[in-house]
Amino acid sequence: TETGRPTRPQPKDVQLYGVEEPLDIPYEGRKIRLPEETDDLEAFPVRKHHIDTNEHVNNCQYVQMALESLPKDKEVHQMRVEYKKSAVYGDMIYPRIATEDDRTVVELCDENAKPYAVIEFRFA
How far apart are CA 106 and CA 2, in angstroms? Predict the structure, then answer.
């Protein structure tokens, strides 16, 4: 709680749940490749319902914000999120979107075009 960052679980905590081998699935890289060209969408403020107990935007709220910008007829098959920095109550979110090949990338940025979060969607 002092640093606002998670700590590693203790061995006694891990024993309660057990440890298994990772699933045999293709893993994506940690960084989402940003598209070269994006379209700007209408900016909006961070509202109280976006905020968690740490006084930052809750991670799932970034996903909800990004989903709002997608066409309603698309069914999301896969999603990845790269969290960059925390937005707080009153900050403005400047969304940018790009569609290329089989993916759509939504960047949720600050007024200087620095992303709070980057969300990549792939569709069925």
Answer: 32
